[in-house]
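User: tokens in, sequence out, please.
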């Protein structure tokens, strides 16, 4: 177990009690961040997915069944989480957003821990830009693959020259758990854990997985978990006609890859290959996360480590005719949050609406660290125990000029112009229409709902 000795600046605030000694020990933190992760996991009820290690983590703590990102693009979402600040029309807007540029006065999450005596380590993709708030990390690295997008097959490596010329959108890769960068990042994090176990400081270790981000590259044995015959297209694979054009996009992120048509839909067979590749990547990450958690357990660190697993936003797999993220649909906005913390209940499943901006205040409270004074989310600690809690009524997400309010039953999106006037909107009832196929704007039912949730038409 990581030892605690006197350390300059270490704040001996409320921590967990271990055993019968009643000695307060600051908890370690392991943050596992998975890119483009849908809530399509066994612990979220997806019986077709093979994610035993993530499911076991969920069983050891709390799974938040209605967790939403605050913006569906990686750079902005990560900057928001790491500062505890919400995206706005002028802050954290795009994939290239940086926390240290958009919110230079905010104390970042790792900086708060570092300032409080923690040893902070970043491995893999945590901030979108590795140099973002770099001084908040005592150690930081992001491994590179054989090509910019980490292909292993020669024909893809040859194709993958620039952002404008990429390899195929998926790759059935060679054997070996460390064939791809995520595998090597896991091995590096395991070495970190062995070193951190012997240090005299508590640690904050963040491990970021690139997959299941495009391209969908994973060793062949993870593709084998999902035979082609088992893959089905979503029931709502066509672009809807009853939503504003602002709700839709051309899936431009996918179209950068070789083998994808520049315009129009992909073929059904290619769509199934892409979905299968996404599933394979999720199971590959699950396997690697299992190795990481086993290492934590084997080193005796598990009983005093808060583990958080989360995505950075959702992902579309042809729902509404869309691929990737970048929309105000639930498929882009919903993404997992799982927290397992010492001395707190296992097998806890919460239905409350929670947001990614809640992560920073949660970790701050669990570690007993001071409030930096700028956080805009709510600590989830009250939800980590069982029982009724008076909680927030909605999550708020933004994409470009579209704002989505998600409640336990409804999702309302309004697009505004430079004068803050509503120029378009859509409304869904998740109780009767969880897939968001029927826009209720303009209907009597929709008008009644808008009145009920206190928003303008």
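Assistant: Sequence out:
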């Amino acid at each position: 177990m990581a030892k605690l000795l006197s350390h300059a600046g270490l704040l001996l605030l409320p921590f967990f009690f271990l055993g019968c000694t009643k000695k307060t020990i600051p908890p370690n933190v392991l943050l596992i961040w998975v890119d483009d992760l849908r809530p399509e996991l066994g612990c979220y009820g997806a019986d077709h997915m093979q994610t035993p290690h993530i499911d076991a983590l969920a069983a050891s703590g709390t799974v938040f069944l209605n967790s939403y990102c605050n913006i569906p693009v990686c750079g902005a979402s990560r900057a928001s989480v790491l500062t505890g600040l919400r995206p706005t029309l002028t802050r954290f807007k795009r994939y290239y957003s940086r926390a240290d540029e958009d919110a230079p006065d905010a104390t970042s999450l790792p900086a708060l821990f570092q300032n409080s005596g923690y040893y902070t380590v970043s491995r893999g993709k945590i901030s979108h830009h590795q140099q973002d708030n770099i001084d908040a990390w005592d150690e930081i690295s992001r491994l590179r693959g054989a090509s910019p997008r980490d292909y292993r097959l020669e024909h893809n490596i040859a194709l993958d020259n620039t952002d404008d010329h990429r390899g195929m959108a998926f790759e059935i890769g060679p054997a070996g758990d460390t064939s791809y960068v995520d595998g090597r990042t896991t091995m590096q994090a395991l070495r970190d854990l062995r070193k951190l176990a012997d240090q005299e400081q508590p640690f904050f270790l963040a491990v970021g997985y690139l997959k299941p981000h495009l391209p969908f590259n994973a060793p062949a044995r993870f593709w084998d978990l999902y035979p082609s015959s088992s893959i089905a297209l979503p029931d709502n694979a066509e672009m809807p006609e009853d939503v504003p054009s602002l709700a839709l996009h051309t899936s431009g992120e996918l179209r950068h890859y070789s083998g994808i048509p520049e315009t129009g839909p992909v073929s059904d067979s290619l769509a199934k290959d892409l979905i299968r590749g996404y599933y394979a990547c999720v199971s590959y990450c699950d396997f690697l996360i299992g190795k990481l958690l086993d290492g934590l357990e084997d080193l005796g660190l598990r009983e005093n480590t808060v583990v958080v697993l989360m995505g950075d936003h959702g992902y579309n797999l042809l729902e509404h005719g869309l691929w990737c993220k970048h929309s105000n649909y639930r498929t882009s906005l919903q993404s997992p949050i799982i927290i397992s913390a010492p001395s707190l209940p296992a097998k806890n499943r919460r239905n409350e609406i929670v947001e990614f901006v809640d992560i920073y205040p949660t970790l701050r409270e669990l570690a007993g660290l001071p409030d930096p004074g700028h956080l805009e989310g709510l600590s989830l600690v009250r939800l980590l125990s069982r029982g009724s809690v008076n909680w927030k009524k909605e999550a708020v997400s933004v994409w470009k000029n579209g704002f989505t309010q998600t409640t336990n039953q409804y999702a309302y999106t309004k697009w505004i112009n430079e004068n803050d006037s509503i120029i378009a909107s859509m409304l869904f009832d998740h109780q009767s229409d969880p897939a968001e196929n029927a826009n209720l704007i303009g209907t009597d039912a929709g008008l009644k709902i808008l009145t009920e949730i206190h928003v303008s038409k």
